């Protein structure tokens, strides 16, 4: 199977997560009015989804190693589909949070399957290139998601957004059954006792280099999720922008991500993925330093938005390189490694996002400082990452 063909199918699959995350952002004011709650409390539905998306991967990853990628991925799609339908029928915040948690379980089983399938097929720099290509394709989803959400709002109510998500999950079931799984390399599931699925996590947790890369992923994703959680507040309440202008500015983040992702592929021919991660994490930190300074000096919208676009856009280079580095050391436990990576990323970032939603001080300066704090931690970890030569030697162990 060609890398492009595989990337298109896996990119379509992993796009389900960003769609469920971003498509309903323009509907936050409508949801708040419909449920009779504060705008900021709608962010709890996002945090609940993201946190569950992380925790449930701890179950889905080992299960995919033991029972195979297909049943776990398809089971996740079906759970996600049912959860989306039920969210559209929710008439209270508690109901919506509950069914978003169900969506998170289904999304987790899908999310953990994609990097595991990649590691089944390729490794090393090839994995970094394939992750990059998948990322480039899936960027269409978060770029289009707010616009799709705005379109659904124009056609009907906010509930239409979740019915659209359920329809997309059903579409994926058909496409993957026909076009993906018949073409994958045969892989025998690991027939080990169920209790060993838990102890396998210790192998990953004890691997200090892998945990360093997981830490980088967690902190960089936390930076991005803080923005996503508060993006509607920043642009629609703080600056008073319309749904369409908000969607355009949000899409600009994804456009910058895609540009860096495209640049990352030729850079991998000259530099190691470790070097690229280090450079891109530092670039994100510098953009956030500029953001904090702009906010403190009450700079214009175009300057604040520009700093955000650069900072969030750096994820386009950080994610594929860092995932390849973290997954490199566990070819036979790729599902478990992917689960720990995803669980750490979404759970910790979700907790940070939740805290930022329930605290009373929800202002642009406080959000910018929180993003910078997460990025500073990522820089410290990236500066201590091994050089490419050391990484290559260690991966052969």
TrEMBL record:
Q: What is this protein called?
A: Bcr/CflA family efflux transporter
One GO cellular component term of this record is: plasma membrane
Similarity annotation = Belongs to the major facilitator superfamily. Bcr/CmlA family.
Q: Which GO terms describe its molecular function?
A: xenobiotic transmembrane transporter activity
A Pfam short name: MFS_1
Q: Where are the transmembrane segments?
A: 41-60, 72-90, 96-118, 130-154, 160-181, 213-234, 246-264, 276-295, 301-321, 333-355, 367-385
Q: Which domain of life is it from?
A: Bacteria
Q: Which UniProt keywords apply?
A: Cell inner membrane, Cell membrane, Membrane, Transmembrane, Transmembrane helix, Transport
Q: According to the UniProt entry, where is the signal peptide?
A: none
């Amino acid at each position: 199977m060609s890398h492009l063909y595989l990337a298109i199918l896996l990119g379509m699959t992993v796009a389900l997560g960003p769609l469920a995350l971003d498509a309903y952002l323009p509907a936050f004011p409508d949801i708040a009015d419909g449920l009779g709650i504060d705008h900021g409390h709608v962010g709890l539905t996002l945090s609940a989804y993201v946190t569950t998306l992380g925790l449930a991967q701890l179950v889905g990853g080992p299960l995919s190693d033991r029972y195979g990628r297909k049943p776990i991925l398809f089971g996740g799609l079906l759970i996600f589909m049912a959860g989306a339908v039920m969210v559209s029928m929710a008439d209270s915040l508690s109901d919506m949070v509950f069914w978003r948690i169900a969506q998170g379980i289904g999304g987790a089983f899908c999310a953990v399957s994609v990097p595991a399938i990649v590691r089944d097929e390729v490794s090393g720099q090839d994995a970094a290139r394939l992750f990059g290509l998948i990322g480039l394709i899936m960027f269409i989803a978060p770029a289009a998601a707010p616009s799709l959400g705005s379109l659904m709002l124009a056609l009907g109510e906010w509930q239409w957004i979740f019915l659209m998500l359920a329809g997309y999950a059903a579409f994926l079931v058909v496409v993957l059954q026909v076009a993906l799984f018949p073409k994958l390399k045969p892989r025998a599931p690991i027939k080990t006792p169920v209790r060993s699925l838990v102890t396998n996590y210790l192998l990953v947790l004890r691997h200090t280099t892998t945990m360093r890369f997981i830490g980088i992923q967690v902190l960089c994703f936390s930076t991005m999720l803080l923005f996503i959680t508060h993006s509607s507040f920043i642009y629609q309440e703080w600056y008073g922008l319309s749904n369409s202008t908000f969607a355009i500015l949000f899409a600009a983040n994804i456009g910058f991500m895609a540009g860096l992702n495209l640049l990352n592929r030729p850079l991998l021919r000259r530099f190691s993925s470790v070097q690229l991660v280090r450079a891109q994490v530092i670039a994100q930190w510098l953009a956030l330093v500029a953001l904090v300074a702009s906010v403190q000096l009450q700079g214009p919208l175009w300057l604040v938005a520009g700093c955000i676009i650069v900072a969030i856009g750096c994820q386009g280079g950080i994610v594929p390189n860092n995932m390849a580095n973290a997954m490199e050391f566990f070819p036979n436990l790729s599902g478990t490694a992917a689960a720990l990576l995803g669980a750490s990323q979404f759970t910790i970032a979700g907790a940070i996002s939740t805290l930022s939603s329930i605290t009373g001080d929800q202002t642009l300066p406080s959000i910018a400082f929180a993003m910078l704090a997460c990025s500073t931690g990522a820089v410290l970890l990236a500066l201590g990452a091994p050089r490419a030569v050391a990484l290559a030697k260690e991966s052969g162990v």
